[in-house]
Amino acid sequence: MVSPIQGSMASRFHLLIFFSLFSYISHSKANTSFRPRALVLPVTKDPLTQQYTTHINKRTPFVPVKLTVDLGGQFLWVDCDKSYVSSSYKPVHCDTSECKLSRSQACTVTCFRSGPRPGCNNNTCSLMPDNPIISTSTSGDLGQDVVSVQSTDGSRPGPSISVPDLLFSCAPTSLLQGLARGVRGMAGLGRVPIALPLQFTRAFGFAAKFAVCLSSTTGAVFFGDGPYVMQPGIDAAKFLTYTPLIKNRVSTAGAYFKGDPSVEYFIGVKSIKINNEPVALNASLLSIFKGNGGTKISTVNPYTVLETSIYKAVTNAFVKHVKDIPRVAPVAPFGTCFNAKNIGSTRVGPAVPQIDLVLQSESEYWRIFGVNSMVNAGNDVLCLGFVDGGLNPRTSIVIGGHQIEDNLLQFDLAASRLGFSSSLLFKQTNCGNFNFKPNA
Ligand SMILES: *[C@@H]1O[C@H](CO)[C@@H](O)[C@H](O)[C@H]1NC(C)=O
Ligand SMILES: *[C@@H]1O[C@H](CO)[C@@H](O)[C@H](O)[C@H]1NC(C)=O
Ligand SMILES: *[C@@H]1O[C@H](CO)[C@@H](O)[C@H](O)[C@H]1NC(C)=O
């Protein structure tokens, strides 16, 4: 489907001149009198699919486009086959600086489908949009269009601000399979120049940082540095502790170009403790070897997924620590469930042993309390919210949505570190508490 880049040196030269002029013209359209310190996107959890969705205003005229948030996604991709109408859409041609930025190694020389239209132009930089929920990748053309996002001072939304030439990939309608109702694509927040965080950073010159604060109802993604103020006036950024983000040299995307590194967010979990007692694990699974193993964070997995031997060790250790709580028949996809009537409750959820992901040293850990470890399966059943990822998963530990809800996670791309808050419920707030009402 993708063909090698073609074109002589001479035509390449002309293209480059043309495109640098073009981007100069379009950048001059941007409103430079207002520089946001950060941007904010509201995020809603879809109860049916457990996906975290957001809306971005896109195209000319603007329409709200609903997207599933993919923390480890490579870029924004949207369905261009069905009713993509926009006077500001531009294809990104091969051999342009934008195409280079995307790390594409492919070019759609000729689009034989019904074109020209968004997603079908000749001589267009070609990418491989990925839907990790159905483990499917396709090819798609790189394009640019205007988007508009709310700015924020960290405590409230401010004026909406546009990025005239946001880079994104088109995808066929079929790639929307498995996504929540009304969703038209995925918002990739990965560690790569054309994912949304670094594009916003380049457009507005704010810090190369973004933060996610998800909840079971509504939450937010912030682009730029804190404060990230949750009602009643609590700056959640104050509670962050930091751990290095680990590089994985081999892509973990569904499809990728040769030599691409992973754009997902890996952290160095060294061991796991339950009630301060280490769980015996095969430590080699926790490090990354030839792209396999290690621990990453994902918003497209509703629950944390553990390689089988880790899953067994963690659940057995947990059960040992709660001997006095009666077990009940497991409710899929979980394997360990309890009678909720025998479990007390605390400010941070069910009173169960805390689970610590121990990081670069014994004193650095991400503590998981009952509200993040246990899942209410109805009928007075509480289940340990981890699932068995099988014997040879690509990544040994995938920290999923339920475990990061009401935790602030800040991804500092310049310093290559993750700031994590543990449960904000301890701090008398939560991720649903950002005040999305603009100033009157
Ligand atoms: C630029 O943004 C500022 C702040 O929102 C606004 O007051 C101003 O009118 C805008 N200027 C243009 C030319 O759009
Ligand atoms: C692409 O080029 C081919 C051959 O020159 C032409 O037939 C076709 O109409 C063009 N398609 C688009 C989408 O411009
Ligand atoms: C530990 O995991 C590694 C990597 O999967 C595997 O090669 C090794 O056999 C495992 N060791 C034990 C004792 O299970």
From TrEMBL:
GO terms for biological process: proteolysis. It comes from the Eukaryota. Residues 1-30 form the signal peptide. It is found in: Secreted, Extracellular space. The keyword Cell wall biogenesis/degradation does not apply. Its main location: secreted. Residues 52-421 form the Peptidase A1 domain. One of its GO terms (cellular component) is extracellular region. GO terms for molecular function: aspartic-type endopeptidase activity. Keywords: Secreted, Signal. Coiled coil: none annotated. Belongs to the peptidase A1 family. This is Peptidase A1 domain-containing protein. It comes from Escallonia rubra. The lineage of its organism: Eukaryota, Viridiplantae, Streptophyta, Embryophyta, Tracheophyta.
